Fold these 2 entries.
Entry 1:
Amino acid sequence: MATPSAKLKKYAQKRDFKKTPEPSARPRPPRRKPKPKLPMFVIQKHHATALHYDLRLEVDGVLKSWAVPKGPSTNPADKRLAVEVEDHPLDYADFEGVIPAGQYGGGTVIVWDHGTYRNIKTDKAGRPVEVSQALRNGSVEVWLEGKKLRGGYAIVRTRMTGPKNNWLLLKLKDEAADPKRDITADEPSSALSGRTIEEVALEGGDPRYVRLVPQALARLKSKTRA
Ligand code: MN
């Protein structure tokens, strides 16, 4: 099995850590305290070229990652495209801020939800399947315990022709499912700091938002004059 630092090569190659505030891929000393029993998950709302949600699961010392353009749903009927991206370091889980324009993923990031997960994937005989094996099989099932999201989710590699990194994120049918909710619209703020992506963008100087403020004020003025 590849070590976390070998897995993070792609992550490091894409970024200039002198220019981005994102965590580096530097290996860190093992945690002194015993590891919490449950691995973590995080969903970061990321306004790069387009707005999307990055789903990350802690697996074998790194964060396995997917970019989900429409974000997660609580409706089991929804199939949300989830594009597999490079593994991220564990430290990325609490990154919130602005990646400078021109850098990889340039734009604003907030921690939209975070918590722990349990692996609930079993084989046909009902025996547990390890997450790393489930990833290779292209069929992951986890139970999330977040601030916003709860319950079972499946992440399934599509069998369609096309890029091999396309997966689907699906809500499983359980008591936490709710077809009527629009959870990304209802709960837009950071689960870590309570801030919206707009607030973090303005504080961090995301040029696109900073430019928008005078425009929005001007629009407001011209409306009140009319
Ligand atoms: Mn992203």
Note: The mean pLDDT is 92.
Entry 2:
Amino acid sequence: MSPEEMLKTFPEQFKWESYKMDILSYKRIIFCGMGGSGIVGDIAVCWLENREAPVFSISYRGYGLPSWVERGDIVICTSYSGNTEETLSNFLKAVEKGVDVVTISSGGKLEELSAEKGITHLKIPAGYAPRYALGFMLSKILCLLGIEREEIESLKNHLRSRLKEIAKKGEDIAQRLFGYLPVMYATPLTEVGAFRWKTQFNENSKTQAYFASLPELHHNEVVGLDNAQIRNKCAFILMSDPQDHERVLKRVEITAEVLKRLGIVPIVVKGSGDSYLLRLLDLIYIGDWASYYLALKYGFDPLPVKVIDYIKGELSKGS
Ligand code: PA5
């Protein structure tokens, strides 16, 4: 499947399934995963927080598990390939601690080890690049967390109906970013979207990219704008969500003003939709398309991530 075809399947990747686990009865939920499989945990944490779910949740990246994880918590390990060593390490640590675990992968060692240790494993379709399978992984997690069937249907329909407009928007943004370092200025509710944009520019478009968030960026990042030699190499993207704190929204306006005074016209992006989840996924989908078109502009194939494969290969030697 071409990257364009994979991108087009995003809305169709969402499917409601009924799981019997009462995830919210746990004390804490620890989402583990890296790269394209790690972002699903970030989105889940934001979703739970936005719904004021009565459970503490965290997205964890790295080896092992935080020392405070204990029985009564649940660890959800997601790895598209099922072979990412950090995620396998999280899994093994959770099993060692006797903590409940659920795993999600298209196969690999995570599936094998789950079967061996009697752990619930949720399988997703193979044949995608991990970051193009976001919908499959997120859908499983949202269902585990108890999302209603109607919500999944409504987000599927929303993304489907917006696909053409979103792809066009992505193409226009890619046009403006060509030749520049993409810099996303985000807010608490769009920070995960900005992080996804960064990683998609890195992996698909093969370019450096970075992001900073309000209100923190008003205490450091903005001073860096004084340096015209560096800022002229950047293209600035401003993101926000209508549900952000009113003082944050005020800060977004001030940021636009500060940029304007420096002669910078930022690209203003807002996800559309009548719920936070819809807007976040809408925003993410715009960035996915922008990174795809930017790859084409630079003459890169969006799919291969040679250096990631090289590093994984080096790490697997002798292990
Ligand atoms: O999108 C990618 O290819 C990467 O970001 C991977 O997701 C990352 O390296 C982790 O691999 P996996 O998703 O197979 O656990």
Note: The pocket of 5-phosphoarabinonic acid is lined by residues 34-37, 79-81, 84, 87, 129-131, 203, 305, 308 (CB under 6 Å).
